[in-house]
Design a protein that fits this description.
By secondary structure, the chain is mainly β. It has a single domain, classed as Porin. It contains 1 helix and 17 strands. A hairpin with a 5-residue loop joins strand 13 and strand 14.
C-alpha cells in the first residue's frame, strides 16, 4: 500500500466517523489524552529519548457552541524505567454571539516502568485559568471557560497483554474553581438563560478504563480502535441564588466512548496521528461544559 492509498483510507474513515457522531465524544477533564495512557505502537529498535508533539483539535459542544484548541507536549525518557511528560493546552469556544480563547492547563506527570508490560503514572493538572471568566461584568457559564480551574491529581496504570493494551486511571480535583455563573443575571432574551447555573461549582472526580488494540496495516501505517468508558464519581453541585448547595441531578455516571487512532510514520523521527471519537452511552448532565458532539484531533510529533 503506498502513501496515497493510506491517506485515502485515513480521510475516508474520518468522514464516516464524523457522519456517525451525534452525541458526547471523549470530553473528559484531560487524563484520557496523557501520553502514557494513550495507545502506543511497537517499541522502536532505534529508541530516542526526546519527543515533541504539536496538536490541534476541533469539535461540537452543547448549546450551539464550537470548540477548538491546540497543545504543545514534551516527553523525555530519563532512564530505562522512568520518563517525564509535560503538556500545555489551550481552548477556544465560539457560539451565541460569544467568542473566547485562552490558555487552559499544564499537565505534568512521571511514569515508572515496573516491567516490560506494566507502567505506573503519577501526575497533576495545573490550572492556568481559574474558571471565573466574565464578559461585560457578567459571569460566563463553564461552557465558555478555558479551564475547569481545578488542580487535579492523576493516577494511572497501563498494562499490555499481547497486542491488547489496557489503562486504568483516576483524575481527582484537589480544589474548586471560581465560577459564579447564574442564569438569572442575563436578560430574558439571552440564550445563556438556559445554561446550567454553576455558582461556586464543585466538580467530582473521574475514573477511566481504556482498551486498545493496534492493527498494523503497513510498516508505516497503523490503525488502533479503542473503547473508553469514563465514570463520573458523584453528582456535581452549585450554590443556588438562595445560598443552598444543590446537586446537579444526572451529572454522576457513565460516558462510554469509542476512539479510533490513525498513525502514519513519515520516517524514524517524524509521525502524524489523527484521533476521532464517538460515544455510545452519555450522562444526562454535563455542567462542566465539556460535552462534545464530535472531536477530531490531529497531531504531529518529532523524536530526537
Amino acid at each position: 500500500m503506498n502513501i496515497f492509498k493510506e491517506i485515502t483510507i485515513l480521510a475516508t474513515a474520518l468522514f464516516l466517523f464524523n457522519s456517525a457522531a451525534h452525541s458526547q465524544g471523549c470530553s473528559d477533564a484531560g487524563f484520557c489524552t496523557i501520553n502514557s495512557l494513550k495507545p502506543h505502537g511497537d517499541e522502536s529498535d532505534q529508541p530516542l529519548n526526546h519527543q515533541i508533539k504539536v496538536g490541534f483539535f476541533s469539535g461540537k459542544a452543547d448549546n450551539n457552541i464550537n470548540v477548538y484548541g491546540n497543545y504543545l507536549e514534551y516527553n523525555r525518557i530519563l532512564t530505562k524505567h522512568f520518563s517525564l511528560d509535560t503538556k500545555l493546552t489551550t481552548l477556544g469556544q465560539t457560539g451565541n454571539g460569544i467568542s473566547v480563547f485562552g490558555i487552559s492547563d499544564l499537565f505534568v506527570n512521571g511514569n515508572y516502568s515496573v516491567a516490560d508490560h506494566l507502567n505506573l503514572t503519577l501526575g497533576a493538572k495545573i490550572p492556568l485559568s481559574d474558571g471565573g471568566r466574565s464578559r461585560n461584568n457578567l459571569a460566563l457559564p463553564m461552557d465558555y471557560q478555558a479551564s475547569l480551574g481545578t488542580f487535579d491529581l492523576i493516577l494511572g496504570i497501563g498494562y499490555q497483554l499481547g497486542r491488547l493494551q489496557m489503562a486504568v486511571a483516576t483524575q481527582l480535583p484537589l480544589n474548586q474553581n471560581k465560577n459564579q455563573f447564574t442564569a438569572s443575571q442575563y436578560p430574558s432574551g439571552s440564550s445563556l438563560t438556559t445554561f446550567q447555573p454553576t455558582a461556586n461549582f464543585k466538580r467530582s472526580g473521574d475514573v477511566l478504563l481504556r482498551l486498545s488494540y493496534p492493527i498494523t496495516i503497513t510498516p508505516s501505517f497503523r490503525i488502533t480502535p479503542s473503547v473508553l468508558p469514563i465514570y463520573h464519581l458523584a453528582n456535581d453541585t452549585y450554590t443556588s441564588e438562595t445560598g443552598v448547595e444543590t446537586e446537579i441531578t444526572g451529572s454522576k455516571g457513565l460516558t462510554f466512548n469509542s476512539n479510533i487512532y490513525f498513525d502514519y510514520e513519515i520516517n524514524h523521527r517524524h509521525a502524524l496521528q489523527l484521533n476521532v471519537s464517538k460515544p455510545f452511552v452519555v450522562r444526562d448532565a454535563r455542567p462542566d461544559g465539556l460535552t462534545r458532539s464530535f472531536v477530531a484531533n490531529l497531531e504531529y510529533k518529532i523524536r530526537f
